Amino acid sequence: MPTGDISLLTAELEKYDWPALHSFVGGAARLPESIKLLVSAKTEEEAEIAERGIENIALIQGRLSECATPLTSCLVVGLDLAEGRGRGRIFDLLATIAGGYDDHVDIDSVGPVSVRDCVRRMADKLGLYAKELKENGNASCVDILLMCGVYDETVRDFVSDTFRSALELRSCSGIADLIEVSLADLY
Predict the structure, then answer these.
(1) CA-based nearest residue to 180, from 127, 141, 130, 142
(2) Residue 151: its H or E element
(3) b or e along 118-139 (b: 16 or more beta carbons within 10 Å of the residue's beta carbon)?
């Protein structure tokens, strides 16, 4: 596991009754192990296996299941602990959740979920997403920031300022079109 305070992730994982949560495979009992594997992933292969395990349980093709809400909280905690390849995959998963949808025909089997609630759980780390965007040109952070701004008007100015400053950075030149479209979508 990472060198950070892993007890924070353990405490967050223990808040939820994973087997009782609806998912695309029934319960979500295997999700905590996949989260731990992702947070501790050192190689691309380890990160990919963990991410795939999470996706197959909690979110499929943008559709979210009930366990996506606690998953979001755990991934946000895991960001501060993740090293190596897992960190990038956590940003990717958060972006997928932020852009996901909760209104689908199989709601009876996958349980109730709210994208808005998931995004609210991400909002505590706005500064981290902004930093990652500016330093590394991480496109997933554009998506996360955009949805935080869409769902919470009190952070729109921060998100707008972040996007505008990112457009001036060489690190973000490869995703300038995405940032410009996201800036337009913000309002």
Answers:
(1) 142
(2) helix 139-151
(3) bbebbbebbebbbebbbeebbb
**Amino acid identity, position 34:** S
How far apart are alpha carbons 64 and 49 in whole angstroms?
19
Amino acid, single-letter form, for residue 151: Y
- Cα distances from 20 to residues 16, 118, 181, in angstroms, run 9, 18, 40
Q: Is residue 54 within 8 Å of residue 38, measured between CB atoms?
A: yes
pLDDT tens readout for residues 109-161: 677 788 999 999 999 999 999 999 999 999 999 999 999 999 999 999 999 99
Q: Specify the pTM.
A: 0.93
CA 180 to chain CA mean position, Å = 21
In this structure, the number of other CB atoms found within 10 A of the CB of residue 22 comes to: 21
Cβ-in-10-Å burial (0-12, 13-18, 19+) of 34 comes to buried
| Amino acid at position 114, single letter | S
